[in-house]
Design goal:
Terpene_cyclase-like_2; Farnesyl Diphosphate Synthase
Length: 358
C-alpha cells in the first residue's frame, strides 16, 4: 500500500492491569501440539507450524491463569489455535478471503457442526471445531456451551462483514469499522472462553446487565485495537487485508500513518479508562462468578499484550516462526488521551459512557 511502516513510531502501550501466567502452560502446550498434528486440520506441515507458533496455550494461560482444571484450559486453548488456523487458512489470506458468498456457506457449516454433534463434514477445520465442541460439552453446562456458540457465530458474522468489504473494495468509516471489529476480532468467543476455562456459571441476570455487556465490549475493543497495533506491519504487507484502525483513520481524517497511530492510541486509551471506571462501579455488587469473569476481562486485556508483543505471529514478519521469548516488556505509565465522554465519530459505542450503566 505504500505506507512506510518501518518508519512509524509505535508508542508503548498503556495497560495498568494485573498479569499472571498459568503455571502448567508448558504441559498444556505439549498436549495441544499433539492435537493439532493428530486432528489433521492443517493442510501442510508449514501450516501446522504456523498454528503451533501462535502459542495459543500461552494466550489462554494469560487469560485464565488460575484455571484449576487442565482439561478445561486445554480445550479452550485448542479453540484459540483453531481460530488462528481458520483465520489464516480460510479468512485472512486464504482462497475465500475475497469470496463472501463462499465464506458465508463455510461459516454456516462450521456453526452447524458446533451446534449439532451429529453433523457431518469433510472440511478438516469443521471437523476440528466439532471436536472442540464435544470437549466443551464434556465439562460445561448447556448455558455456557450455548453462550460460546452464540459468540462464535458473532465472530463468523464479523469476518463475513470484513470479507464483504474486501471483496467490494470498501474502506469502512470509523463507526462501521469499530462495530465490525467488535465481531471480526474474535473477542466475543475469546472472552466467552473465560467461563469454560474457569468453570464459571455467571447468572443470566448478571451476564446480560447492560453494564456487564459494556465491560465485555470494551475489553473486546481494547484487545482488538491492540491487535491492530501488533499486526500493523503484517497487515500492511502485500497480500493482506488493509482494514485496520490505522488505515480507517487515515481515510477518515486524511492524515498520514503516524498521525493515525496517535489517534488510534488515544481512542483505545479512552476506552480502557472508561472500562476501569465502570469496573469499579460494577465489581462491589457482583457475585463470585461474575467477579472472576470481570477479573478475566482484565487478565485478558493485559494477557493479550503479554502474548501479542512476543508471539512470532506478529514479530516474524512472514518468515519461518521463531520461539516466543518471555522477556520483560515496557508499558506506558500514563494514558495518551484522558478526555472523558464518548469517542467522536463513533455513535455505535457511545452507550458505553451512559451514566446509568453502573
Amino acid at each position: 500500500m505504500g505506507h512506510q511502516v518501518s518508519e512509524v513510531e509505535l508508542p508503548p502501550i498503556f495497560c495498568p492491569l494485573e498479569t499472571a501466567l498459568h503455571p502448567r502452560v508448558r504441559s498444556v502446550e505439549r498436549r495441544a501440539e499433539e492435537w493439532i498434528h493428530g486432528i489433521g486440520m492443517c493442510g501442510s506441515e508449514r501450516e501446522a507450524a504456523w498454528v503451533v507458533a501462535t502459542h495459543s496455550a500461552h494466550f489462554m494461560a494469560w487469560f485464565a491463569p488460575h484455571a484449576e482444571d487442565d482439561d478445561r484450559l486445554l480445550a479452550t486453548a485448542l479453540w484459540v489455535y483453531w481460530g488462528f488456523g481458520f483465520d489464516d487458512a480460510r479468512c485472512d489470506t486464504g482462497p475465500l478471503s475475497g469470496r463472501p458468498a463462499q465464506f458465508n456457506a463455510l461459516a454456516c457449516r462450521v456453526q452447524r457442526a458446533y451446534d449439532a454433534p451429529s453433523a457431518v463434514s469433510d472440511d478438516p477445520y469443521v471437523i476440528a471445531n466439532q471436536d472442540i465442541a464435544r470437549r466443551f460439552r464434556s465439562f460445561a453446562g448447556p448455558t455456557q456451551v450455548d453462550r460460546f456458540g452464540h459468540a462464535q457465530r458473532a465472530w463468523l458474522a464479523g469476518v463475513a462483514w470484513q470479507i464483504g468489504n474486501q471483496s467490494a473494495g470498501v474502506m469502512p468509516g470509523l463507526d462501521d469499522y469499530l462495530a465490525m471489529r467488535l465481531l471480526s476480532s474474535g473477542g466475543e468467543p475469546t472472552y466467552a472462553l473465560l467461563e469454560l476455562a474457569n468453570g464459571l456459571e455467571v447468572p443470566d441476570r448478571e451476564m446480560h446487565r447492560p453494564a456487564v455487556r459494556a465491560l465485555t465490549e470494551m475489553a473486546i475493543m481494547v484487545a482488538a485495537l491492540d491487535n491492530d497495533r501488533h499486526s500493523l506491519v503484517k497487515e500492511l504487507a502485500p497480500g493482506h487485508a488493509d482494514q485496520n484502525i490505522h488505515t480507517v483513520l487515515m481515510a477518515e481524517h486524511s492524515v498520514p500513518l503516524q498521525d493515525a497511530v496517535h489517534l488510534a492510541t488515544g481512542l483505545r486509551d479512552r476506552v480502557l479508562l472508561r472500562f476501569l471506571d465502570l469496573y469499579d462501579q460494577v465489581r462491589p455488587t457482583a457475585s463470585a462468578d461474575l467477579r472472576c469473569y470481570l477479573q478475566g476481562l482484565r487478565y485478558g486485556m493485559r494477557g493479550n499484550n503479554e502474548w501479542g508483543l512476543r508471539v512470532p505471529r506478529y514479530l516474524s514478519r512472514g518468515h519461518w516462526p521463531d520461539v516466543m521469548e518471555l522477556s520483560e516488556l515496557t508499558y506506558a505509565e500514563e494514558p495518551s488521551d484522558t478526555r472523558p465522554g464518548p469517542v467522536e465519530g463513533a455513535p455505535g459505542i457511545a452507550w458505553w459512557w451512559d451514566r446509568d450503566l453502573g
